[in-house]
Design goal:
Length: about 325
């Protein structure tokens, strides 16, 4: 098949390109030509800013693709451009959305794709608005869009840590190895279901190959839904570090201080049934293997530049004191 990836040299999109090449497809990418990852041999590279409709149209020429996989779409106006440019020229259009489209109302577990999308932040609201453009284009003119909603993505070259104050922290590996305590929302009780980028890449190909997927959205999370505490314990084990001491920060306090980070202060466990029913695909990469891969890649690089940031010491002292005071109050 002729397959176009919008993006192609970044963290996720390079995995999509690798999977498509491995599956024997003829792969073209379109990027601005800025990213440092090399374009794999045999992949055709086009150059355009996807937010510049005229430039993107010129780069695409009059060509058609069996499958387009859009990994860098964040704005509804870019979704409209995509629908305009690819109408009648894409056999399937796979849009990488996010689980942040879901809202904060009480959630059922595992959350399925029909859950309300009252996104809690601008990023999720814009992604939901992009989704809506595609759903409307399918309803009105059978534009063959498919939406994938990944949560936290793992893979070599990524950082450790999910949500809260300890998320995507370049120093986390070293802090785990020094047995420093971690401040986790609600003591790490919130659920998370990270997904390896190779599973997302496989899901892109699976939804593109199924007749049932156009006009529909699919969760694409990993095979393991765990508490964030278990995530950090697995990360510590992968790093050869002891299980971390965990200090509990109420998620309500975190969201009051950082309202735009409310999407991280949610239980994020997702049903993968629709994906399995419509494509036969189920994610394969277990959390421990994915975390080991991230750690190995971090170990292969030098430690982060610059001095280590101050690790929330006053907050830690406060949380320890409050925990002790709560125990004393309960015992009275
Ligand atoms: N990271 C997560 O945990 C997570 C979770 C849920 C969903 N997502 C979604 O996953 C997707 C992938 O994220 P990612 O960070 O891994 O990035 P990525 O897919 O690897 O994308 C970066 C690639 O896109 C190209 N690019 C960036 N801006 C462009 C533009 N305006 N026009 C053309 N090409 C452009 C970059 O090359 P140039 O710089 O050379 O243009 C690079 O090839 C995103 O849609 C994100 O919303 C991520």
């Amino acid at each position: 098949m002729d397959l176009l990836v919008i993006g192609g040299t970044g963290f996720l999109s390079s995995a999509v390109v690798a999977a498509a090449c491995e599956a024997g497809h003829h792969v073209t990418i379109v990027t601005r030509g800025r990213a440092s990852r090399p374009v794999p041999a045999g992949v055709e590279a086009l150059t355009a800013n996807r937010s510049d409709r005229d430039a993107l149209g010129a780069a695409l020429g009059g060509r058609s693709w069996d499958v387009v996989i859009d990994t860098v779409l964040y704005r509804p106006e870019d979704a409209e451009s995509a629908i305009h440019l690819f109408r009648g020229r894409a056999g399937r259009y796979v849009f990488i959305s996010t689980d942040f489209v879901y809202g904060g109302e009480p959630r059922r577990f595992p959350l399925d794709e029909d859950a309300p999308r009252h996104a809690l932040g601008a990023y999720g609201r814009d992604k939901a608005a992009c989704e809506d453009r595609f759903f409307a284009a399918w309803g009105e003119a059978r534009f063959p869009a498919v939406v994938l909603r990944p949560p936290h993505i793992l893979g070599a070259g990524g950082l450790l840590g999910t949500g809260s104050l300890e998320g995507r922290d370049p120093w986390l590996l070293w802090r785990l190895r020094r047995a420093q305590p971690l401040v986790l929302l609600d003591g790490g009780a919130l659920l998370i279901q990270p997904v390896h980028r190779d599973d997302i890449a496989s899901a892109c190909l699976a939804v593109a190959a199924s007749e049932k997927t156009p006009g529909r959205a699919y969760n694409i999370a990993g095979p393991d839904a765990v508490t964030t505490r278990a995530y950090y314990e697995s990360a510590a084990a992968a790093a050869g570090a002891p299980p971390p001491e965990v200090l509990a920060l109420p998620s309500s306090a975190y969201v009051a201080a950082f309202p735009d980070r409310a999407p991280f202060a949610q239980n994020r466990a997702y049903s993968l049934r629709r994906l399995a029913d419509d494509t036969g695909f189920a994610p394969q990469v277990r959390l421990e293997a994915a975390l080991s891969e991230v750690v190995a890649a971090l170990d292969a690089c030098p430690a982060p530049d610059g001095p280590e940031p101050e690790p929330h010491t006053p907050l830690r002292d406060l949380l320890r004191r409050h925990a002790a005071e709560a125990v004393a109050a309960l015992a009275e």
